[in-house]
Amino acid sequence: MFRGAVAAGALLGLAGLPIPTVAGRWKLVEQHYGSGKANLASLEAPVRIEFSVTGGRLAGRIWAADDAANSLPWPALLTDHGRRPLDVRQILIAPGNDRIKAVSRTRPSSPDDEIYEIAEDYRLAESGAVLLGTVTIRAVAPEGSSGAYVLHRRFAREP
Amino acid sequence: MTRGLLRAVALLAFAALPAFGQNVSGHAFEDRNGNGIQDPGEPSLPGISFRLAGKLDAGPLTDTTIPTDAGGAYLFSPGSGCYVIQPLDPPGWRLGPSRSDGFPPSTPGYTAPVGQPRFSKLDQGIALLQGGTFRITAMGDSIARNFNFCSSSGAFWYTQQVQSRLLCAFPAATSTIDQAAQLGETTDDLLVDETNNMNNVFRVIPAQPQLITISAIGNDLLDVDPPSSPTQAQINRAVAEVLDARQNLQEILSVLTSQVPGADIVLNSLYDNLAYNCSTGNSTDFHRAWLPIVDRILRDLAWGQTRRVSIAEVAAELAHEDQQGGCSGFEGKICRDIFQLDNIHPNNAGYSIVREKLWESAGGVNLGPKDALGRTSIAGADYGYLRRVRRLLPTAWQTLGGASATNPGAATSDQDGGAAAQIGLGAGSEEFRLSGFPDWYDEIQIVRVLAGVRYRTTGLVGDDFYRMEASVTGQFRPPPGFSYSPTSWNFFTPIVGGGGPNQPPENSDFPTEKLLAVPNVSSFREVSALLTKNPTLPPGAAEYQWPALTHAELPGTTIRVASAPVAGTSGNDAYQVELDAAWLDLYGWEKTRPPEVSGSSGGGGGMGALTVERLPDESLLVTFGAVAGAQRYNLYMGRLSTLPAGGYDHGSGAPAGPLCDAPVQSAGPGRLSIQIPASGQPGADFYLLVTAHVDDVESPAGFRSDGTEIDRSQSVCR
Q1: Which of chain A's ends, N or C, has fewer CB atoms near its CB within 10 Å?
Q2: What is the pTM of this model?
């Protein structure tokens, strides 16, 4: 992964082109459940994420539709019942800034031992034009994992 | 009237007793079309025992059984409290499906989370709860786990809520919940023998719970979701997965039914916001077309078991729309996650609906403050019944693919003291088929048909398993390259055996899944499944129609036992499936049979009154009394020589004829005649019989001197 990024960077550097990174604004254009092919992404209120990389540190903001003014720090969980507390456990960016991961957790609101873990994993593709990745939502009970489902996502870069 | 007044006075006299008017009421009726609704003309059922047990809020326990009145009505007035209703199935009758019809959102009195009453019952619940221990196993997917991202009430909330209500009704009971369900699990997962979780039948069987709740199939469908404007190959892949899930659920339900005999089972129907709710996702043509089919599959699977499985009618409540409807379904009942990590699961309001439907499926009613709507009276707790009119046995058998069968005819008899056909299986494409189910009971109005088997195994079933299936046409799989459509997919009904590992080929997965949960069966085991056909969708119709089997389809209907070796191998096991019997149970009702055609007008006369006259041209003129309402008459001829031995041969082996829908002429008041030309008469001495069809039911051909009807199979003018 790291080695590949360096090689790609070297090639692009020789050509005098900027090396694409995850930095920038992205719009969710496709979302598939598991191995399904139906696009479940809401195109009426698309999710947007904007990443910036400063000094090797990744920062992101997320919002839906055109409501950038009410963006939230990424990752975030926002439902029509309001914002849900999210315990962000990990945010990683690969050395080439072309791959990012975030792991966060939330609990059902009532007293409950169950935890829902959200693992997002995105990587650049198509010469930096798109961001592909998966979101794995896992239920974790005291006795261990209680299953998971996976969403496959495709973000398109926006100007 | 006087008695009612006296009762009211008595109630008012004791303030501690429940307030007047706190009732639970409903009807028992003959559900002649199996839709769960008492339609006009469907008879009420008097004398059905209804039991209501539970606890009044005021303190005392109650356990009362009353019969339905002459109008099929029952009424309990227990006062505020928590109760469970349990009608007692009359012998020969089976509780019909819960109603699953939709209602426009504007329907007066339609208030979530209760919606419309869609009651079922636990057959063993009251006795087990009164017995003290009530273990609940909640199996399946994220719905069973009560998952969402919208302020979830917690894992297994709705199951816990129903458990709490049951314990409210039976406070002396103790209850636990096996929190087995897992996110993302499919029907295949429930047939994978894992030891690190309980979400499979292999772990549930040894636990022997008293109630098993299941939500499944949603992920099977999501995992094969075709894109918009799908290719036929993508549709085929999705449909193959649906059919695989049907096989899996048949195996799951049948195994739980037989191997956990003390458990009642409840299966959720499948709601689908992708089919019905435009606000939370892109509804797709595929979902709109196939969700009603998937739900019908679930309902049929539940009803077809040897012990009926209840349906929690989640789908009916969460979708008011038909497949051609708009987008005004249950908005607000799905978890709307702005960043789209969910948008699939019910929110808390949606899960409240699931809770209510599970509660109703158990026959649960709360009156007063504990009810979700605070209702003090609940009406419409109706229970429809279907009658098992006749069990049909096959008359023909056949071996295919090199199968061996010893004593094969034993499988065509259910009254031979347990004698069984011994079918050698375990390799290749060995097969044993039974067919030739009688088609002459034309007075039976077939509503539903259960295909059943009773079998055991000898020898050792290793990894080369077997299947049992039924097919209305005898064609069990589509031809290569077949294109599935909503009205053409239903080639077979699974009875024994799930989809198996790496199935379907179009979506190979789950290599460790078991095709059979109980491959070796030492004692006779009964399994059944509802035999179904393709739906139809007439032009302009909003909903699919599900035609019942016809009598004409019975002779060709086939039940088979077939080897199912490890995929890609020819198999090397050698064992016997001992098939005691296979059958079709016809559920429905009966028309009145017309009287025997006789010599006297209106029937009822002796056969001697039927006259035969030879005319100069050697033709015969048969004269008989007209039968009221007859649509057509038939004339049969058989060899006289067969009668002394007690046999008849005027049917398919007749020496001449029969003359079906024979031309008749008036022969005077109340009398008709049929002329048999000389060329149409048998060469040898013969007997003749005349029958009539009234309302498409053929009259008896005649009766022996001992009063028994002569062989109906010979009446072939159907």
Answers
A1: C
A2: 0.92
